[in-house]
Amino acid sequence: MDGTMSAIGDIVHRDKIIIITDADVYGLHQDKFAGYSTIVIPAGEQYKQQATVDSIMQQLIRYEADRKTFIIGVGGGVVTDIAGYAAAVYMRGLSVGFVPTTILAQTDAAVGGKNGIDVGIYKNLVGTIRQPEFILYDYSFLQTLPWEQWVNGFAEVIKHACIKDTHLFDFLEKHQLKDFRSNKSLLAETIERNVVIKSEIVEQDEFEQGERKLLNFGHTLGHAIENEYQLLHGHAISIGMVAAAVISEKIKGLPASQTERISRLLQQYHLPIAMEYNKQQAFEVLKMDKKRSGQGMNFVLLEEIGKATVTNIPMIQLEQIIQAL
Amino acid sequence: MDGTMSAIGDIVHRDKIIIITDADVYGLHQDKFAGYSTIVIPAGEQYKQQATVDSIMQQLIRYEADRKTFIIGVGGGVVTDIAGYAAAVYMRGLSVGFVPTTILAQTDAAVGGKNGIDVGIYKNLVGTIRQPEFILYDYSFLQTLPWEQWVNGFAEVIKHACIKDTHLFDFLEKHQLKDFRSNKSLLAETIERNVVIKSEIVEQDEFEQGERKLLNFGHTLGHAIENEYQLLHGHAISIGMVAAAVISEKIKGLPASQTERISRLLQQYHLPIAMEYNKQQAFEVLKMDKKRSGQGMNFVLLEEIGKATVTNIPMIQLEQIIQAL
Lengths: 325, 325
Hints:
Two copies of one chain form a homodimer. Chain A has 325 residues and is an alpha/beta fold. Helices cover 48% and strands 16% of the residues of chain A. The first copy, chain A, has a five-stranded parallel sheet with strand order 2-1-3-4-7. In chain A, α5 (103-109) runs parallel beside α9 (184-204). The first copy, chain A, starts with 7 loop residues before the first helix and ends with a helix. The mean pLDDT of chain A is 96. Chains A and B meet through α3, β6 and β8 of A and α3, β6 and β8 of B.
């Protein structure tokens, strides 16, 4: 729902709320947290680790959190992932709600119930799937969102267009990132469209037996380089999407002209489409991807823009493909 | 189901199994683990902590565990709790099965899907509720079970009798612990009866909204002293059950003669019924019990042997009651 964070007190009894946020959000919006028990974690993907969860647990104990406590994650994807995870396992599960403060969290991370943490360089290796009680969209947080985080978030928006929505793809081609920053209704409409795309997929397939796998487009190679090179998530999956499009040409006959269109759109939104990285090392990390199934990897490919499909690629073949990228 | 551990290969494809056990079980039954990828954790409740889970995660990565991997916990309650928890969160959930090797795990810990770890002295503060795919009863493990672990396990058996089954209570009064050690069919019948009692409660109320709370009889005070004084779980809840019976006299009119019978039965099975402990400190730990709900504690009391009930006792009153015990 849309609203301002001050409305939280109307949704949940104020005394029972414990907010989890990060130092960046807290520093920029301290007034919004006045009067709430708040746990502030350090900002950045490198803190999406068990040590941070351990510290959250200690603070929940200090606040005497019990099963009536409501956890609210206020922040970007790292905060909503880790707050959702802590809430899922503390006392075997507290209620949780999110106030996503970035484009990425609003269009993707906070939606769908996946939570979790990284284990070293392995992305989201530990976590659960558990839906929040609410997601509150308070657009005032976007006023302080740095430019690079706008870029970061639009990578997932372009991903949704690639796998599910040619109209959204066309629409994005006709605009620039700055249009969305300056035009509130254009932005709200786009965020809403993305929430609908993701929610519909999650409703059909909450536990990722089929359709939900499509959301991993660009994420297999993306995750394999993201933590190793400390990339923004959007940058990593942008590079991953171009690689997946190139692989789609070979295996699914995606026309090269469509790979071109995808690359052009990513660049239009200031996203990187390639980088130098150690391919052997990336393959080693990729082996631990959750989409691996025995001797093969469930890889998301495109038949055309707007139409994705999952193909099990044998690990041996995938190693060769990555070496040849 | 009953069987021998060697039957696991018939239930689950051998290549996909990773066993989690502890050093005691592994040392005594090493032959049973031959040919299986096995993670051995140190034995003892003091290792039921996040650090052990962290180490399990590292070893799962080393074994390249993926979503097709089947985790099997072979051991007592600590092993089944921690293996169930690791399986619940690794890659957002792997399948898990249990081979409980103690009376306590066979009659209680492995049954019902509660898993988790302690956080410092706070028992089971972190975990999930998630049912195993199977529980395999291999009674050959009991041949090496130390005497104190027989005593430990029968505390939960007596608990089941107290809250749900006067016939079981009468039956236990007529026997001695040594009868169960020497008479396999008497033991198997008793274990089965206990599994039925617990399973029926869990089936009615998996997520502990009502009926399942009754299983916490003796556990509120028990948990508050267990880790602080490094007691066996059975010893701690035995003391907790006597305390709960005394409180039941005051609040629920349980006849003093029934408290007497409970104390006598616990002693007959070599369980302690009292100890010296710091009551103020115990109350501080107890405040973090999962059964606390705001200003009150959902405390399990007896109306009579075989009939338990939950009463919300205000924390202020509970503090006085404990001081007066």
